[in-house]
Amino acid sequence: MSHVFPRHTKAVLPTAVAGDGCYLIDANGKRYFDGSGGAAVSCLGHSDAEVIAAIQEQVGKLAFAHTGFMTSEPAEALADLLISQAPGDLNRVYFVSGGSEATEAAIKLARQYHLERGDSARRHVIARRQSYHGNTLGALAAGGNAWRRQQFAPLLIDISHIAPCYEYVDRGEGESRYDYGQRVANELEAEILRLGPETVMAFMAEPVVGATSGAVPAVEGYFKRIREICDQYGVLLILDEVMCGMGRTGHLFACEADGVAPDILCIAKGLGAGYQPIGAMLCSRQIYDAIEGGSGFFQHGHTYIGHPVATAAGLAVVRALLDRGLVQRSAEMGETLHAALVARFGQHPHVGDLRGRGLFRGIELVADRESKTPFDPGLGIAGKLKKAAFEAGLICYPMAGTRDGRNGDHILLAPPFILSEDQIDEITDKLEVALDQVLP
Ligand code: PMP
What we know:
Strand content: 15-25%
Mean pLDDT: 96
Shape: globular
CATH architecture of the largest domain: 3-Layer(aba) Sandwich
CATH class of the largest domain: Alpha Beta
Number of helices: 15
InterPro entries: Aminotrans_3, Aminotrans_3_PPA_site, PyrdxlP-dep_Trfase, PyrdxlP-dep_Trfase_major, PyrdxlP-dep_Trfase_small
CATH topology of the largest domain: Aspartate Aminotransferase, domain 2
Largest sheet: 7 strands, mixed
GO molecular function: transaminase activity
Number of strands: 17
Helix content: 25-40%
Protein name: Aminotransferase class-III
Distance between the termini: 37 Å
Bound molecules: 4'-deoxy-4'-aminopyridoxal-5'-phosphate
Enzyme class: transferase
Cofactor: pyridoxal 5'-phosphate
Radius of gyration: 21 Å
């Protein structure tokens, strides 16, 4: 009997024993193509020699030093490298152990920034529906996924949610893409005015929405308008790139494609590429200066922040992404994958939308293409597809609709950036087997 507390207590899972490039191998020797990189984590595949060597070297030299007493070489070097690449005025890096810790820290930093400036009335965060920012209570409150929040609603801080920029589901007939983007962005201004501008501290959003909607980028102009509104009302812009950052969308930072820079940026998954648990929160010089010139102490912290082995892994990962041209490869192979998906499933009666950027791709499934009607959530289409694909040897990330009747089941693909063109065929072949089985 297993003593591990699994996600699904009734599921019987195979035991993963090895990783080989884009594949995971179970105890029976079965190979699975990791088409979702776990959950947009494994950007370098599962057996990157340089990252493994960097971890081994660091753990042999210095495994841990608490950041309350000392900094470490890999943490300093990784922060320098990230800041050398980061957009806008991002200037300091606060390391954490994962995505939820990054978004949680961002919310607290936003609050403390305003306090340091004597703006103590600023306490509201605005976020978006159909978004996910993590599972700890602050992060969960920021997320707008009704299903994930439901059980814990009485425990969550009050965060308001405006519309996402979700063109496939929301854009009106005859409305241009640009006008649509401006319309939904302006919901932020309306909400700031409703709450009282002097009470709003931050707006949080994913540049390309991952775990709730399946790789949904905003339309052109949306984030520029969001940035304008934030600036006008002194509201900090927090971009959550935990899933879509680190080259996943074909840019090292996803917001580069939108032409905006945030005040606070959260990254995780691809930063450690699965080799170590690590996340980070990058903040602007202005925010850092407010703390430094004020109390001089960010009232936050975890035991493992800036962990030497985790930051050594992150450093090796970011170097690999940059030195091996893998961000560009994500952009190019992403186009190839998209073209293959369009060729194979573009006319499928239950495929409503194929979208995404780089190697971050979403397939939205519908009961009816014409009316874009989602499947009845009770049918569990996404879960059945996950199972059928898994049996065929493909790991893909299925998501049930958010059950608010607006977005339906979808599948997320986020393979390692090292995949080959033949492996793109392997993904589409196996996906077709699964789709034929579940939606004949
Ligand atoms: N933000 C986003 C956008 C995410 O996709 C996730 C994880 N799916 C998180 C935050 C939370 O990250 P973690 O699971 O590492 O806590």
